[in-house]
Structure formats: C-alpha cells, structure tokens
Amino acid sequence: MPPQLQNGLSFSAKVIQGTLDSLPPAVRAFVESSVGLCEPDRVHICDGSEGENQQLLGHMEAEGMIKRLRKLDNCWLALTDPGDVARIESKTVIITQEQRDTVPIPKTGLSQLGRWMSEEDFEKAFKARFPGCMKGRTMYVIPFSMGPLGSPLSKIGIELTDSPYVVTSMRIMTRMGTAVLEALGDGEFVKCLHSVGCPLPLKSVPLVYEALSWQHGVFVGAAMRSEATAAAEHRGKVIMHDPFAMRPFFGYNFGKYLAHWLSMAQRPAAKLPKIFHVNWFRKDKEGKFLWPGFGENSRVLEWMFNRIAGEAGAKLTPIGYVPEEGGLNLTGLGDINTKELFHISKEFWEKEAEDIQKYLEEQVNADLPHEVQREVLALKQRISQM
C-alpha cells in the first residue's frame, strides 16, 4: 500500500451523507488520507438504501450520464467507449517486492502469465495520477462484501470513487451499505481507490469578459487555463493552468515576468490597452457548444473594438465586464442561449478562486507580486458578495 493511503492528511471536504464517526477507525483513516490526496469537494458515505440508489439514478439522468428505458421498469442505458467495457490485461498489474512472487521470469520479453510492477514504479505511477484527481466532485465511500455477510468465505472491501455510476453498479453486484460496516467492525478489509480521472470542464467561464483594470488584466492572464495540446506530454483532454497561454515558453522567472507587465502602469503617460478573456468552447448540459465559433468569433471581436472605442455597454460582474443584454451582434445566428453563455456560477468561481490562489502561491511562491495577491483576494471578496 503506497504511503499516500497510509498516512493521515488534512480533511477538507464536506461530508454530505453519513458521518466520519460512524466509520471504524481503520476505514476512517483510509477515507481521511484519500481525501487529502484526491481533494474532493464532498464525501458521501453510502448506506446502500433504495432511496440513495434512486437519488443517484436521478442525478445521473439529469446530468445526461444515463438514459431511462421507459418500456421496462427500473431499466437504464449507460454508454461508454468500446475500449472501456472490460479489463485490459496490459493495464492490470500486481505489485510485490519481488517479481517471482507474482509471475515466473520469462526468458525473453514480457510474461504472458501476468503483469508485475515493482513498488517503486507503482509509487511513481500513483503519484502521477491521483493527487487532486477528484477536485470539484463527490467522493463516495462504498462498503461492500463479496459474498454473504457473515460467511467465512466472504471478503469485505471499502471502495472510494467519484463516479455515481460505480456506486449504483456496486449495489447491483455486491452486498453494499451500512450493514457491511456493521459486519466489518475492526476487521481487515480490501482498500480500493478509483477515479474517473478527467478534470471538470470550465463550466462557468463566459464567452468573453473585460478585465476591471490593468492589474486585474495581468491577474486574469496569470490565471488562464487551457487544454493540453497534442504536442505536450500530457495525454487526453487535460484542462490545466496555463498562465498567459505561455507556460512551456517562459524564458525566465514567471514572478518577474508578472512584475514586468505590472510595471507598465508606472510608466509616465502610459496608454494601457484593455484586456479581454475569451472562452470559445463553453458547452451546455448535453455537451454541445454554446457558441458556433470559427468566423462567428468576429462578433466578439466587434464588441471588444466597440468597448475600446467607448461605443458598447457592458454589465459589471465579479469577474469582469460582460456584454450587456443585446450588446453582442447575433444577427443571423439563430437561437443562441446568451443567458447560459454568460452565466457566472458562484459555486464554480468560489472553487476556481481557491484553485488559482493555491496554484500561484505554490508555483510562484515568494516571487508572486503583491499586486497579484491583492487581485486574488479582491476576486474572492467579490464572489462572496454574489
């Protein structure tokens, strides 16, 4: 078991169902250390009840994760990638100190009788994948039994996951819930940790907004995120911090880079430009783009030019100025949901402001200009007043 699952870390998530005090000490320690590692926003201790099951099914239906098949009672359709419907042998490994404890050592190549991984390699793989992997989500604590409760042949496990689909599936395939914890007591159990592994999309960043000031604009640039490109070593669609969309290309200390841009405001008779942030890729609940993009982006540029010329109005929000109602030229575009396109969620931005502050403090540390620190605190204050 890697140290991350052994050593207790700080507990910061909100428990939305059940209580930590109801857990056996060893189970509680496992949950607390995993919360510190995976950083979920909430913790839900599963009781295995029908009410809980229906609540989770309703949540997944509302989020578009599953579809009700109405011709049959309690029948649901869940779709997944064809390559994700069964265990993959090459990615199923057993970790032991010695390879021969797991598989015979073949004369050449990889063993066809199993996959072994050293504890050191597993530690590296674990650290690369799990820190912060549940940010913005709920961690579900699933007590389960493989076999009838009380049978000497049964095995009890505790699975931690951020997938409600896994919770409902485990309820079908195992004995799951409060009764398992009661049967476990202070006994031994198998520790299971699972995450869907995909960062949450930036659901509440509007199509365009204008910075409140030059200093705020520099902060907006420092707080930018983007999807990792195919050229990067990051695999899959990873939304990551990407200050100024320049993260791989800074040639010197980023703190001094920020200070350089901030210093522009101190130049005599400086005519500082307005700074705008755009998000062309905002999606609705069905995963469809809210904005058509491509050549239609010129409509957003038109609003920017008009703002610079003092010819366009704007609505003040906690994160900056957005186009006022009717301020964006949408002629000929058909039905555009501007309400959702420019909606600013307090819950999202509270979390985003915390993430931005943590990233800048950890990565820039003592070199972070105090002007940027003030902008972080000001953003958090404005959001708190929404």
From TrEMBL:
UniProt record, GO biological process: cellular response to dexamethasone stimulus; cellular response to glucose stimulus; cellular response to insulin stimulus; gluconeogenesis; glycerol biosynthetic process from pyruvate; hepatocyte differentiation; oxaloacetate metabolic process; propionate catabolic process
Pfam family, one: PEPCK_GTP
Reaction equation(s) it catalyzes: L-seryl-[protein] + GTP = O-phospho-L-seryl-[protein] + GDP + H(+); oxaloacetate + GTP = phosphoenolpyruvate + GDP + CO2
Subcellular location as annotated: Cytoplasm
Gene Ontology cellular component terms for the protein in this record: cytosol
Single Gene Ontology MF annotation: kinase activity
Coarse class of the protein's main subcellular location: cytoplasm
Cofactor: Mn(2+)
Keywords: Cytoplasm, Gluconeogenesis, GTP-binding, Kinase, Lyase, Manganese, Metal-binding, Nucleotide-binding, Phosphoprotein, Transferase
Annotated family: Belongs to the phosphoenolpyruvate carboxykinase [GTP] family.
The protein's name: Phosphoenolpyruvate carboxykinase, cytosolic [GTP]
Organism classification: Eukaryota, Metazoa, Chordata, Craniata, Vertebrata
